[in-house]
Amino acid sequence: MSTIISIRNLHKRFGHLEVLKGIDLELQKGEVMVVIGPSGGGKSTMLRCINHLEKYEKGEIYFKDVLLHEKRVNMNEYRMKMGMVFQQFNLFPHRTVIDNLMLSPLKVKKMDPAEVKEKALNLLKRIGLSEKASAYPINLSGGQQQRVAISRALMMDPELMLFDEPTSALDPELVGEVLEVMKQLAREGMTMIVVTHEMGFAREVGHRMILIDDGLIVEEATPTDFFQNPKSERTKEFLRKVL
Amino acid sequence: MSDIILSMPFLLQGAVITLQVTVLSAVFGTIIGTIFGMGRLSKAPFLRIPSSIYIEFVRGTPLLVQIYIIYFGLPSIGIDFPPFTAAVVALSINAGAYTAEIVRAGIQSISRGQTEAARSLGMTVWQTMRYIILPQAFRNILPALGNEFIALTKESSLVSVIGIAELTRQGQYIISRTFKSFEIYGGVAIVYFAITFTLAQLVNWVEKKVTIK
Hints:
The complex is a heterodimer.
Chain A: E1 3-14, E2 17-28, E3 32-36, H1 43-50, E4 58-63, E5 66-67, H2 75-81, E6 82-85, H3 97-107, H4 113-126, H5 142-154, E7 160-164, H6 172-187, E8 192-195, H7 199-205, E9 208-213, E10 216-221, H8 223-228, H9 233-242
Parallel strand pairs in A: 3-8, 3-9, 6-7, 7-8
Antiparallel strand pairs in A: 1-2, 1-4, 4-5, 9-10
Helix pairs in contact in A: 3-4, 3-5, 5-6
Chain B: H1 2-41, H2 45-59, H3 63-73, H4 83-108, H5 112-120, H6 125-155, H7 167-178, H8 181-210
């Protein structure tokens, strides 16, 4: 196995508020890491630091052997390798579903339009939304929008997918269809970091779980150990509340 | 009444000039406004500060004085525009400042998530602006832009002071021969209204056209 992401002593503050207080983490290729923890604990911030949507003051993040915050690193290139899925979907409302998928491969990667279109149609077929190709996002349900958002990220052939609470903004009955797409991805061997409150997903496809609270990783274990023999008191307390 | 009808061909000649000045200034004003609207939101002080100075100065001084500066003032430092060019330059600079504020508000109306999604797909700052932010911003500001263009049509009457034979100037010229102030200025007003009313309908139509259903 090869390391795809390593984080060393990551610190991040918003003004006076220190959100991350020294995170150390290694992610192997093919691994599905599930990140849980209370709101405001720093899980999303950590995820957003990985693809540099947030800047950080101290610490290092490596993608394979590349130290990402170095000046000579073109972050746009590395963001392409890390697909990101947001809580609020963030589809482009002025573009049709298929254009949402095709825009970045065409404009950023300058790929052949016919090839991009075929790839987009295949992805839409896989998530069962072929008939929505020329619809606008506003006419899709939340669950459909999030599935399109996942496909849009996959269009760039990422080596890693980052999920920032992908089901938190969905009506309960729409959560399942999104989790299903994510589980499928996990089974195909995609490397993933998933910030979520979906414990069932963690149990089913997670390889490793971490709990982040107050800017620190307080527990790191396999899902089985995490749920059955948590070491820290904080984890036990958290599990009592959410399970 | 007959005076209005007889003077109509002359007024319409003026209206053509009014339209030329207005359309050119609207186009240049929109380009200037887009550049400075983005400039005002830039993190770089060397873009942000000049943009703010331009916008505030132009909005804080009368258009008539701006026209005087460009037509009568600039020749003394060696920049000598013919009247029509001076008119378009003055109106473009003026419209640009107001449009910049509209564009700024339009860009700010687009949620941060749109920028983040675009950047996460590998787009540069410029690609994000061009393909994601500006197209949505322009949809949102269309009504405000329409207002600005209507205002510009009316304000173009001020360039009559530097001898442009636009609608107002043509009216004055006819009055100087016929002395029918009420009728002719009434006719001038009707022609302005016909232009601005058409423009308003056009903006409504475009707005409907670009609304996502």
